[in-house]
TrEMBL record:
Residues 50-146 form the Methyltransferase type domain. The keyword Methyltransferase applies. PANTHER family: 2-METHOXY-6-POLYPRENYL-1,4-BENZOQUINOL METHYLASE, MITOCHONDRIAL (PTHR43591:SF24), METHYLTRANSFERASE (PTHR43591). Transmembrane segments: none annotated. Keywords: Methyltransferase, Transferase. This is Class I SAM-dependent methyltransferase. The keyword Phosphoprotein does not apply. GO terms for biological process: methylation. One of its GO terms (molecular function) is methyltransferase activity. It holds the Pfam family Methyltransf_11.
Amino acid sequence: MENESTIKQHVQQQFGKHASKYVTSENHAKGDDLELLLTWLPLESTWNVLDIATGGGHVAKQLSAHVQQVVATDLTRPMLSAAADHLKQAQCHNVLFVVADAEQLPFLDCSFDAVTCRIAAHHFPNPHLFLHEAARVLKPGGKLVLIDNVAPSDEVLDQFMNTFEAMRDTSHVRCLTVPEWQALVEKAGLQVDLSLMNRKPHKFPAWVMRTAENEEQAKSVEHFITGEDQAVQDYFSVHIENGKLQYLEIDEWRAVLSKPL
């Protein structure tokens, strides 16, 4: 496996090239989880919130009208610039943008009332460090909303999912299983207040080309998925029409974690 600095440099290169796609991506820009954030978090107008690995800035945008300030961080400067342009057009004037590594946050202890991280943690080489950092910067009693793609607990399905994700997106590190996340959450000293599973649909052509460098890469992902056993395809709701892969579903974990008082 690549060393951490190489992985993070590759993440920066990959997201830098595709930054605008993440602003407009339907899977990132939409989703019922953005609305549910407003019910999961007891938002107050005095709050300072940190959005880790903000991507296109969609979570920051959703929360900005309800809190005093959102600090949106990302490892990739071009991605952060795209998010800033997006939120400027949306008239979100209380969002501060900071280039930062999720595993080494440049903030003091107990700085934020809430922390969010949505559809990003599978790019982190050390998710345990991310959780420890999120817990560190949270105020006592503060909430962390973690939403990410997760691998099934079955080893064959786990390996299959992480393989096609890495083929599709070369900056992919690993989707953890929910039990793995739960163990890391406990080690970070956080408590699970809410734990929900979601099935996330993807229209394959748009999904694969968001990160693929060329048609050849996209076809190799398609051939890998469609060449797998039927039982495995069935788990991921693989839909083939006219000989082309059109649709699949993956698991997503949505958790609200809290830092004890």
